[in-house]
Amino acid sequence: MRIMRMKKTIALGVLLTIMLIALYHRYGSSSLIAEDIERDHSISSIFPESAEKNSHFNTAVQHESSKTESSKDFLAINDAKENLENTFNQNSAIVSKPSNSDRLVAPQNANHSKTVSYDQTEKEMKPMQDDFIGRCWNTSGIHENNADIQVSDLVEKLSFQSEDTNHGQFRNLQPIPKSEKLTVFLVPHSHCDPGWIETYDYYYTRDVRRLLTNLYQFAMEHHDFKYIYAEVSFFSLWWKEQSDNVRQNMKQLAREGRFEFVQGGWVQNDEANTHYFAILNQMLDGHEWLKKNFPEAVPRIGWAIDPFGLSPFMAQINSMFGFGAMHIQRVHYSVKRHLAENKQIEFRWRQSWDWKGETDILTQMGPFTGYNSQSTCGPDPDICLHYHFAAFTNPKFSKDRNLVRTTSSNVKERSLKILDQWRKKAALHSANAVFIETGFDFSYIFKESISEVYNNYKPMMEYINNDPDLNTQVKWGTVSEYFDHIKNSNVKFPILSGDFFTYSDRLDHYWSGYFTTRPFFKNLDRVLESSLRRTEVLFAFHRAKTSTDKLTSARNILSLFQHHDAITGTAQRKVVNDYADKLLRAYNTCEEVSTEAIQNIMGTSGFQPTKHRPGIKDMEKLRILDKTVELLISSTLARRLTAVQVISVNSQHNFQVMRSDESTVPQQIEPAVEYGKFDSGSKHLVFWTDLPSVSISAFKVIDSGEDQAERVNVELYNFNSKSLAMSLESKFHTVSYDSSCNDIVLGGEKVAITLDCKSSRVKKLKTDEREVAVVQDVLLYSDKGGAYLFLPGSTSQLLTDSSRPEIIVTRGPIRDKAVVTLKFLSSTMVLTYIVNHHVGIEGGYVELQTMVDLRNSGDLAIRFKTDIASGDSIFTDLNGHTIQQHKYKSKLHTQGNFFPMPSTAFIQDSSMRLSILSSEPHGVASLDQGWIEIIIDRRTSQDDLRGLGESINDNVPTPAGFRILVEPRAEKPPSTDLYLVEFPSLASYWTLQSLQHPAFIVSGALGQLKNQTTTMQLMKSLPCDEELVNFRYVQNQTCQLIRRKLGFTCAINTISSCDYQDLQLSELFRETVWIEEHPFSPLHQASESKASNFKAMQFSSQYVTFNSQPND
Predict the structure, then answer these.
(1) SS in 3 state form for 582-596?
(2) Is residue 652 a contact partner of residue 726, using CB atoms and an 8 Å limit?
(3) What is residue 144's predicted lDDT score, i.e. its pLDDT?
């Protein structure tokens, strides 16, 4: 027996050695070994059963080129050997399921200095070898990233007792001792909203033009005065009006460090509803403008003083743009107080997935409630009010306030009083230095305001600086000077990981309403994002100089709408309408430039988009095609897209779709039902397309004289309209049902959804492997909040139609669809469920489209109650990039348990995950085990006293789009009591991409094309774990290529085939190109070094220069 075991051990060793050598030669020493079942030497071809069981080997061996990682190499090889040994039993080579000991979970101890895996069987702690295995993340269940402070731990720890913070939180704070030297930086600033109570243009004309001029002139007259500014959108308007002399003087102020841009984005963007594409766009817009016009003012510091809650993704963005530090402000008052009392308001902000801290950035959180002089000088706002000198000349602030100027007779008293506040504030900081913001919203529109600030502080500065016993230095400064000072203080700053949602400024007032407020414009924002991205990519291959100004204008408008009072829906009605007008203008510009680019590339003319928006508050609609046409269908995804397309055609013709070579495509004809309304004069032609990456494909729509496309079967439930039934019966095989009906099942073996035929509620979701029991409710919360706050009553009202809802069901070879019309009170909600018949990604989900016309006050929600044992957890995305876990806490009230959902939310248990993907942002919660609840629209009858001064009752009919995935898990997550680092599946990423970036269709007269079928702009697709974020035109022949490496979980393997192979970027392009690594910010020089390792969850930036110019 011992000899047999020895032989087996030797054989196993030989096999392991051969496999490792083969893998080494195949992938190279610096590559990660990836699972790919299409390759001859994949592990699943050696052990076929492992492909179904999440493949034990699953790229577990990682070769590191650095000698410092040699110990990890050794451990990884041993791990691989152990995995192989586990595949053999005494009788045969059979792959077994992973044991509990293969799972990685969070430790129970509070020490975050080491990442560990916890063996639930042996109860042993051992070091975790790595977080990233091959191309997917193997750390589902890991809480540790070496952070000293986990925000999730604080949420567990703090009591969150409601407090009124209007009069300060630190009344008993003691100042730092006089023996400790204090440095104080006085930083003049003016926070300027590009739209809020007034429009962007009106604010500039009335206020910003004056305040920028006043600050400039004062700085020219007083050489010790310094100031900062943030919003390039406003500054660019001012700069355009200035003489060359003023511009040169401003550049000199920047060179001398007396003027500083902070952040330097087009706006100070919201961080809850925004998507990474738009955030990158607004940052690039700002920095590109500075590069072209004001390159002396390179921003070094991130600045986010007004967004209502904060995302760690902005820390990653700021790190990507080369910032050395960042300053933030609006954080839940309980969290802020805890961090301040523990001297932790300065920290290094770390991403949850960043185990090595490569994207860390030094961050300071303002310790008090606001960012104006009254709030920032110290812990007592009643004292600080008397040093709010800019208010002397502003009627809005000076009424009924006993403001006192600094004179020779009171300078000592006033100096000592303000110094006491500064020293108390310093007690909350790690280093003995503070910066005091001297300004507020639209400060210094009166030139006298700057003089008041300067002339009242100057005698106090001189008094304090000249008294050595006070041991304090006070000076005018900038934010970068402050951070340079504290970086040199030898303080070791703690590492913090987590997000700062949901924000509360006092009591139980949680700012979760704006996650959904005015959803029509949130949807329009995403439509414009998709349109702009497509236009950018097409333009990069077209580069018509006549269109560059149009493209820049569209970029700037999208950037403007990322402002924290724009996409949030928290501006006054007149301002929202102004934003809408700009958004529609940008949308039409993008459609025009995209169409121009497609025509240029294909050598044709006379085409127009098949969708349009008639007005600023109209939804996208299909144009009705009434004659034979040619179609050009463009996909700008960097992977092959198989998708359903829908066009509207005249019902009097028998149209069919063909490829340009006259071969047929799968298609069906449906009744024309858009947003619940039936159009008897048209019908929908629905067909499959298979589009190569970044391509334009040609099709024809011809009148065949007789039906070639299969007409769907129609089922009507609960319809009283005989005219509708008769109209449908004349064109389609139609069956009507009354109360004696069975459940409605859409789909087939791969994916199916079951609806109750009487109530229309979802009852069941099914995939080929799993089934989820569902109870779907539509409910309305009463709400005492406003644009910002969600303040629901103790219960929500389930909405039941006074009559049974009308349901139209269509069934065909391409897809099944059910259109449900719910009428409640004086409002209407249309829900459209679609299941595609397809074996690939596009057949792996249920699509839900909603259209809401809300006329009743309250918050309208869809709640899915499932049998998934998810505990108290829900996972949501941050800006479309990172996944954050949240747990239901009764101490946070209902409103504090709603979180932003820019695009993704999911719940899961040991065997499955239910994901809901969204085409626009919403508020989302899981208020009980197995629940996902999404706020669809909201209408308020009152203001919430946060400055807006209006209720939100200007609702318009609003569309929304969702895709629902049920995915089996190949490994069990750890206990739901733990906080986890999780990632979407690769299928989830792909499904979301095609939802957010559908194909673009233009139509033109037949005969315009000359022997053109498909034009591919890229030679190859990107690896399937990479995303083409943007291909952004810079100048002349140069474009910026921005890619994103996806971080996806190993626990869900719903894509059976995938090409992960890295490629040389030059292989992508048909033309000869020159490619160089380039920082994200154009204000920084191109790197001379080789490309850095492009890792999961990271972005990359290269400048691509073409050697030829396309014809205009």
Answers:
(1) HHHHHHHHHHHHHHH
(2) no
(3) 59
For residue 998, give the H/E element and its range.
none
DSSP string, 328-340: E----HHHHHHHH
Question: How far is 637 from 635, CA to CA, in rounded Å?
Answer: 6
- 513 with 787: CB under 8 angstroms? yes
Q: How many residues does the chain have?
A: 1112
Question: Strands (DSSP E) along 812-857, which ranges?
Answer: 815-824, 827-836, 846-853
Beta bridge pairs of residue 817: 810, 834
Burial class (CB in 10 A: 0-12, 13-18, 19+), 144: buried
Write down the residue that tokens 């910026």 correspond to.
1040
Q: Do the beta carbons of residue 251 and residue 294 sit within 8 Å? A: yes
Cβ neighbours of residue 209 closer than 8 Å, sequence gap 6 or more: 237, 238, 241
The strand pair at 136-137 and 149-150 is best described as: unpaired
Contact 233, 559 (CB under 8 A): yes
Decide: 134 and 341 in contact? Cβ < 8 Å.
no
Strands (E), 424-553: 433-438, 472-476, 495-497
Of residues 618, 317, 523, the one with CA closest to residue 995: 523
On whether the CB atoms of residues 238 and 192 are closer than 8 A, the answer is no
- 559 contacts 266 by C-beta, under 8 angstroms: yes
Report which of 995, 959, 719 is spatially closest to residue 830, judged by C-alpha positions.
959
Torsion on CA atoms 654, 656, 661, 664, rounded to nearest 10: -130
- Nearest-10 Cα torsion for 726, 728, 732, 737: -80
* Bridge partner residues of 915 (DSSP): 906, 965
**What DSSP string runs through 1025-1083?**
TEEEEEEEEEETTEEEEEEEE---BSS----S--------GGGGBSS-EEEEE--SSTT
d(CA 689, CA 658): 10
Q: How far apart are CA 64 and CA 68, in angstroms?
A: 9
Distance CA 771, CA 751 (A): 10
DSSP reduced 3-state for 824 = strand
Q: How far apart are CA 771 and CA 773, in angstroms?
A: 7
The one-letter code for the residue type at 850 is T
Is the alpha carbon torsion for 965, 969, 975, 981 positive or negative?
A: negative
**What span, in angstroms and rounded, lies between the C-alpha atoms of 385 and 204?**
27
What is the SS3 assignment for 796?
A: strand
Q: In 10 A of CB 754, how many CB atoms?
A: 19
Q: Is the dihedral of CA 265, 268, 270, 271 positive or negative?
A: positive
**pLDDT tens, position by position, 807-835:** 999 999 999 999 999 998 899 999 999 99
**What is the C-alpha separation between 333 and 852, in angstroms, rounded?**
35
User: How many CB atoms are closer than 10 A to CB 1065?
Assistant: 16
Rounded to two decimals, the pTM is 0.88
pLDDT, tens digit, for every residue of 97-123? 223 322 222 223 333 322 222 222 222
| Residue with the two structure tokens 């069906």 | 668
Cβ neighbors of 340 (< 8 A, separation 6 or more) are 170, 365, 367, 428
For residues 876 and 924, is the Cβ–Cβ distance under 8 A? yes
What is the enclosing helix (H) or strand (E) of 483? helix 479-487
Answer whether 225's CB lies under 8 Å from 454's CB: yes
DSSP letter (8 states) at residue 343: T
User: What is the spatial distance between Cα 283 and Cα 289, in angstroms, rounded to a whole number?
Assistant: 10
- The pLDDT tens digits of the residues spanning 727-774 come to 888 889 999 998 789 999 999 888 999 999 998 999 999 987 789 999
Going through 201-265 in order, the beta strands assigned E by DSSP cover 227-229, 259-261
Place of tokens 């040199």: 488
